[in-house]
Each structure stands twice: as structure tokens, then as C-alpha cells.
Amino acid sequence: MNLKQKLCSIPPIRMIVYVSCLIMIGVMIYLTVYRSVTNTLTENLVVMIGNILLWVVPFVAKPIFKEKISDGIYLFFVIYAFFASFLGTILTFYENIWWYDMLIHTLFGYVGCIIGLFFACKLADIDHISPVFAIFFIFAVSMMFSALWEIFEFLGDQWLGNNAQGDPHWVDGILMRNVKDTMEDIICHTCGAIVFVLHYTAHVLSGKSLLMDTFKKDFSKGKKQKSASSETDQNPDQQA
Q1: Are 219 and 70 in contact (CB under 8 A)?
Q2: Using one digit for the tens of pLDDT, what is the confidence trace for 180-196?
Q3: In 30, 47, 138, 235, which residue has its Cα 20 to 30 A from 174's Cα atom?
Q4: With helix as H, strand as E and coil as C, how does the chain read?
């Protein structure tokens, strides 16, 4: 199989992910070098390198997890990384647009639930478990991401000198940070997760897809094929 045939065999969504990541790697390398040479590097060099490595994730994860993670998840990753990391951090949208941080955290709440739905589809047959349990599980996964992100921001501020959680100030000789930013982030994330819960609830009560069936089908691909294969292996007498 030549190179052209190999490229044509790559699914469209996967190709979009790969091309987007390659473009962003090039853009990030250019910005890092340019800002370093011109002394306009506003971000910590470690942050810039981290943003370069961020776009390498799909190339590393795909061979490791193979088809266990669907292309749709990688596409969500690319879209969110572009808006949250590149526009927000590198192009300073967080600093220049007062509502941008709240918007991203709200979207992350919804996207976190989609990732929770992915886990639910991989761990069980999503259509044969209690909708209440499924919603609780999906919501809990999304809120876990919120907690992990706030921990990441806190450690970045403490260890790398970042300023993700607001300007530090001294109180009685103790360096303190205002928790207002952290709580606003968690509240916005919760609102986004609640929107997904309402979306999923409408899907269950109405019996209509509302895009949820598309997600379920995509997220359950590898698992269902594997289950069918296992049943055949365990019941050889049923084979004609």
C-alpha cells in the first residue's frame, strides 16, 4: 500500500484531527521561537512547551489505545484545546475578554459529560442500565474533571509561577490567593454539566436521538464488536 492509499484509508474525522494538530504544532513552535527571539514571551517557557506537547497527544494516544477511544473524542479534544489553551492562554483571550474564562469552563462542563458518556458506553451497555444511574455517573465524571483542573491550576501557580487563580496577596505575613476565581470556574463547569444532564434527560424521556444516539453508537463501536466476538468464542456449538 503506497502513501496515497494509506492516506485515503484514514477516516475523515481522524484526518481532520491529525491535520489540525500538525498545523497547531507548527504554529506553536513558530510563536515560541519568535517570542523568545524578540523578547515578547509573555508566558512561561514551560507553558509554551506544554502547549506544543498538547497537540502531540492524539498521535501518541492513538497507537496506545487503538480503537478504544473513538475519533469523536479526539475531535472534541482538538476543538477544546484550541479554544481553551491556544486562544485563551497563548493569545490571551482570558486576560482581554472578561467573560471568556467563564464561557470555556461552562463548555468544559458539557464536554466533560460527553467524556463521561464515553466511559459509560465502554464500561456497560448504556441502553440497558438505569438512566438515573447513567446521568449520575456522567455528571460525576464531568465534576471530577473540574476538580482535577482546579488542582492543576493551583499547582501551576505554586510551582511554575503562573497566575491562573488570581493575584496572590499577603495577609498577616501569609501569601494568600482569592478563591473567587476557583469557585466561579466550578460554578460555570457545573452549569455546563447541568445543560448536558437536561439534554440527556430530554433524550431519554422523548425517546428521540437528539444527537445522543450518535454519540452512543460512536462510543460503543469497539466494545460491541469485542462482545460479539467473545460470545462466539464461548459458544462454539452455535456456529453453523
Answers
A1: yes
A2: 888 999 999 999 999 99
A3: 47
A4: CCHHHHHHHCCHHHHHHHHHHHHHHHHHHHHHHHHHHCCCCCCCHHHHHHHHHHCCHHHHHHHHHHHHCCHHHHHHHHHHHHHHHHHHHHCCHHHHCCCHHHHHHHHHHHHHHHHHHHHHHHHCCHHHCCHHHHHHHHHHHHHHHHHHHHHHHHHHHHHHCCCCCCCCEEECCEEECCCHHHHHHHHHHHHHHHHHHHHHHHHHHHCCCCCHHHHHHHHCHHHHHHHHHHHHHHCHHHCC
Q: Grid coordinates 445522543 are at which residue?
A: 212
Would you mind telling me the total number of residues written for the chain in this entry? 240
